[in-house]
């Protein structure tokens, strides 16, 4: 085996939370056979990516080595793990392996993008394994906040790796497999080179709570509610949906599911057999005939998304349902950093309707899907790997996780996106840095985050936009004065005259001053007109707009 | 006194946290003499107000009644209470009253805007009072997170009102006056019609902690620190600055203040005598000669502001200081909702430098400046007013605060911005709704939030911008083809041809198809060209840009 090596290369998800994409390779340096674990998305925001629809990891490195890519494995069906699979399938072109529920979701995505669903292959859990090139890969069940989450057992000729995927240690997860410590110990017993491990909750110092603790709290809450009840959580948290629906049923309420994502998830969970005994639901069209005190809506939009059901209900009637004084709205969810303002907006709108809102601030109505610090320590001990490679975290999480590994004398390596680590020897070795980044799905087009497209939009948002037009005749003489059209700028400034008039005077002065040489030179002329606008506006309104100069020459 | 009434009218701060502005009036309906309590700002964000510099309450109602405005009282020097005083002074033109520290800050603002600082009058605390028209107003000291915060005792011929301003009940506030329960009881003992009361922390159910509890925790933290220490908090929290500096001094560290706002606040506090015995500080220029383990920087930027000292230090060298492996960075502050991403960005940058970051998640290194629920209850009981009017809160806070008042059998009224409440009788009565809103300071210009200026900028940020130019001759014939300039849009789309080429073909087709009538009609022609761009782009890139059409006619 001399010369062969195992490499690990995160292209997304390490140094950020979101858009997971982890490459593993085995073979001679530069000729490794490759597999990809997860291919997810992250979500845009107005501050850094206005107008963008989705954000993908930049997979240029992998796409250039497509011939060496043997397979894509998806650990679970969260968007940050599976969201880009269909968008990138053509560029990667490798078979996709996932367990039934995840595969069901992945296939829907493939179909939406016009790809054949057969490219996604359903596999069974460990001890079944897939041989792809030199790799043998098995899906080891692990508890998380979505059904059939799996760690991957990745066997190479040079040793076994374990990639946890997202996980928590939950012995009573309500839906899906409980954490099976014995199974994990037996898998790890033959020796594990590297544990590549979720880092999300490294800063939560208390032991994690089981999904099963949430139900009784919600039942208690519902027993005191006299009006209609509406609850929201992540649509993919099928266990929570079940917990909520069962609590509603026990309280004598009919269950209505609202929101496309919610119905799709329940459908996938039922189709694949992971969800059994879900309380029967009532179509929203029939809910009108049921007294509101006997209704419980379970709706999408726990993160304050403007178009989701929760936001619609906060604003008014939605599918005939309307929240009123004395109703209860429950956020059975955590607000992801960055979404606070959207969630607070909804809470205030509900407050205006007289609705009582209960959120997770008490810690009773939601539990995290990720392992807290003591559970991460437990995982290190169960697997007892030669080295710990923290993933799924921002820099601060990865760094703290490395420190945690080191407290027990284990080696850790801080590898952010683009860091290629050689795992072959007795200690991890950084061997290369690969260019990585973000790709934006912008409307129907993929653009690079650094292409300048979004940068220009941000500039227009900050500074407004001015169009300058000038027509020149065959002799390079101005035909009339230049004119100005403004967008996103105030109508008047310091002088109280119309801003466009003030700017047009400046432009006319530029043209009057300009020599023949300038008038013949498009670049020079444009530059002078642009500068006149920017300085004139700065003086008048204290702002320098973005400028488009159009010089039309009759020739 | 028949026909006279007391009115309360919030123009900002009720139904939101920020830009406080509360009007009180006394007199015959429609002829009341008016006073204004506080005139603050709120801060813009990319999502709702890109490019905006500051947000003010819309004071049109009050400006139209300027002749009846007798005075402006500022309770304390936080930006959301004093920030707009200079910007609006010309439109309001009434004398400004404040205690020494607040007046010092207000005068600096007046001078920056070119107004005479003498318009701000320094007054002493209760029992001194100011008579303005029918009002007699006194500043009653109250603890908060800035020196010399005051409640207002507002006496009218029809009874006494108490306006808490921002407050907490703190018996050991480190800097400034401790809460004096006896004094408050004596002021309230003659009977209070209405308590207009801070609502910020109504949802915090535990008793508030004193500022004095923070010091020992910080001392403990510093005793374990081996590298340089850097701490950030709100510059205006002078007590915290003192706590931090004293802890640093005890740990044998020299103190360096970094950030303009921080130095300005300490300067104002020293000038006005509210800050005594502040540990001596070292200018940053001299810090280089001190071993880093003997240094403590106290810096601005606790909210992740990109240009503040904390962000600069996270990015690299700042005034010769540089944070390194083994240094400690302390956030002695709470992150305001909406600022999470900015703060997390800094924490990760610090993590990349190997700096250990401690934030407030343990609850040990920061205490709030606002009264929690039990303290609000205590305040209701101490003042024992006829009615409680919650202010300084979002709708959800005001609503909950009304409920709290009602649990003890007191009347409460939920009055958001623009709600005029008559406080004269035995119960509060809503008598009018006044138009309110927001005014943006945009560069150097004030624009209305609904003027469409910012809306257009948001649209350009989401959709990009296209300029279309067409030149027509004297016969209304097109001179050449129309052309397109794009900004913030991808270069190619579905067809893989340059987007501008594809769009120009569409435009040329429009012009070729257009009859004489359309070509003569600017509006119609513009509309058709705009539609062609929007539909063409939707088809090509899945996005409809904002469009500026310029038709130049040679005539």
Automatic annotation (TrEMBL), chains A, B:
Keywords from the UniProt entry: Exonuclease, Hydrolase, Metal-binding, Nuclease, RNA-binding, Zinc
Protein name: Metallo-beta-lactamase
Alphabetical list of SUPFAM superfamilies matching this protein: Metallo-hydrolase/oxidoreductase
SMART domains named in the record: Lactamase_B (SM00849)
Species whose genome carries this gene: Roseivivax halodurans JCM 10272
Pfam family, one: Lactamase_B
Residues of the Metallo-beta-lactamase domain: 18-206
CDD domains from the UniProt entry: RNaseJ_MBL-fold (cd07714)
Classification via PROSITE patterns: UPF0036
Alphabetized Gene3D superfamilies for the sequence: 3.10.20.580, Metallo-hydrolase/oxidoreductase (3.40.50.10710), Ribonuclease Z/Hydroxyacylglutathione hydrolase-like (3.60.15.10)
Molecular function GO terms recorded: exonuclease activity; metal ion binding; RNA binding
